[in-house]
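This entry is set out below.
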Amino acid sequence: MRKYWLRLTGVVLALAVIGLAGCAGGASTGPTNSQEGLWVSGEGKVFVAPDIATLSLGVSAQSTSVADAQSQAAGAMDKVMKALTDDGVADEDIQTQQFSIVQVTRWDDKTQQEIVIGYRVTNVVTAKIRDTDLVGLIIDDVAEAGGDLTRINSVDFSVEDPSLYNAEARQKAVADARAKASQLAELFGVKLGDLIYVTESAQYPPIIRGGTFEQVTPGVAPTPISPGQVELTLNVQAVYAIR
């Protein structure tokens, strides 16, 4: 009798699992869970001039004592910040990215160990420049203000609001998808039915780097900076029924 109940229980469990699987399969509808229809993707690209430049800059001072290195860095950074604001960079567009005090060492062959020879103080900020034509001028002014302690890490160009160009990119992406669908239908000898599924995704533009420099020497010729263009991309995926 006990074996009979065990077998019966196994049959009931098996039927329950099959029933659940059937319910799950019946609930899956739509093109996202099947491969029916003709699937195509379209891409729309728009090239625009960047309207934002982000300048990573700062100062770095080294001395035999922390106090002296910090004093030098603080004095130079005050002048750099004043140069930025004098050139029209708003306070809210300046943000500290790094501040560090590290030991400077050298290897001593005689003692076979690192010896501390000084301390380096580094202070780095990012400045958002809303007039890209002023980037070269601001770099020159910052270099002059900070002197030999000035460090320019990078100049990055971007678009502050890429969504402003989505309509144009979307129009190109849809046209691209439709052209692909029509061509595929013709090649396979079928006719396109209704559009049954569509989705889109926007790719924010990669930051275009205008240059990386370890140190800027004041008093040289004006720094030439070219913002170029930023590529904005929008993708659509569409599924058409096949008649």
